[in-house]
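Morning run. Coffee first, then this:
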Amino acid sequence: MGFTETLGAWRHHTKMLVPAASSVRAVSLAAALCALVLTASLSPSAPAQAQSTPPGRVGSSLPSLGDGSDMGLSEERRLGDSIARSIYRDPDYLDDAVLVDYLDLLWQPLLVAARKRGELSPELDERLAWELMLSNTKQVNAFALPGGYLGVELGLVAVTETPEELASVLAHEFSHVAQRHIARMLSRQSQQAPWILGAMILGALAASASSNVDVANAAIMGGQAMAVQNQLNFSRDMEREADRVGFSVLTDAGFDGHGFVSMFDKLQQVSRLNDDGSYPYLRSHPLSTERMADMRARLPAGAASAPVGPRKSAVAASEAAAVHAYASARARVLSEKAPERWRVWWQAGQAPQATPAERYAGALSALRLGERQSALALARSLRAQGDPQAQWVLDALWLEVVARAKAAGTPVADADWLPVRDAALSSDRRALVLSAAEAALTGGAPALVSARLSGWVVQHPRDAGAWQLLARAQQAQGRRLHAIRAEAEARAAQLDYPGAIERLKTAQALPANERTDGMELAIVDARLRALDTLQREEMKESARKQ
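And here it is:
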């Protein structure tokens, strides 16, 4: 497991012994790869090229760095898919429907604004993935990867106080990809001496495997002192461009630009207190007084001196603003591994003066502690008194608690949850559909789940979580052919083509009495041919590059 495919070419190029990637978590390696890419130097003979500001964009004294990339979009997407494939297999990869839906509330308006501004061309829009991936760690980090994949660690969601702060990070990372920063750096890596690349790779691996920043810095710095200034200069140019483009995309999407400034301010405070390794974002995106001043200068006249902490914003009445505190609380609880912390949050959530977000964290913590009756009581009270704009989050929590309670044999009155389940199943929101499906499965209604999810996956064929639930529902009904095919589709959705092919061949080999559905069997055959073709194409491409 790990980024063997991605780092293999660099290992061969540098002829250096690199620690085995299997010893490093894939998601952290992805963040380290991002740091490697965004701090890699251009040769001194390849300065950034200035371009005039395109029509329709907000003017800036900082020129665009331009494209200038020799890496094609297809090659970038293949590299991104290879990295994403490793992330999907990592134990820290998290497909939490509630948090994914919340991030999508922020992400989609940013994409719409970028399209209108011309920052996201139709070709980039179509050919890159533009997919957010969650990592279940407490580190405060986000990272852009080749091919339009963006990673978000739960620690970042947990520390942000407003949706604007979180959206500002997404906008910044989006800009790194849209401006082809990563592709340009990768395409020009051959201009660097092998020993520079080798030192940086070792440093990236050390940063991933250990929280000892000094060790990582020593590995990165060793043998390359003469190149450091050129690296930092170009990295700062990239960061300034990502700030400039990201700020405009953020504000055009309807978010208050103070989110950018308050997030910078928060990170700067952490930097002053000496980063202890919990904020990798500070290393891959070093802050500067100049960047802080530039973002403040972009605020509307008279607003630059206003407080930049939590404040009423242009989206204060929006759904994202109503949901953010719950999402932040959820991220804190899910990323925490210590039962002592869950107990503290559980007790705080039961206090009479507890805020809705504290009660949400209390309910989720109680569930993780096995205190199901308390979790039911807290979740029930939240549904009765919560913000209507965040009702879907509270309904999803209620169904999650009910499913876990019923699975453990804790009785729940049908009138308390069946109407919520049925309404959620008919919803178009993923978090509601999947939480209702889970509750229905534990409540003994697999046919209901099969009927709903069979239609859902037609509209969302890359929803691995839905395919996995559908497989369970089909298996519970004794429909083994359909269940195995759903398992295969779940693997294919996460780019595991060998695993998907293996499951489809298993479906073909079922006894005749289990292969009576001719239409489903025809689909299995067609999907097997399609996935086999994809795998062969990948193997040919890999062989061509070796």
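Residues 1-68, 193-211, 215-234, 304-317 have pLDDT under 50 and may be disordered. Good start to the day.
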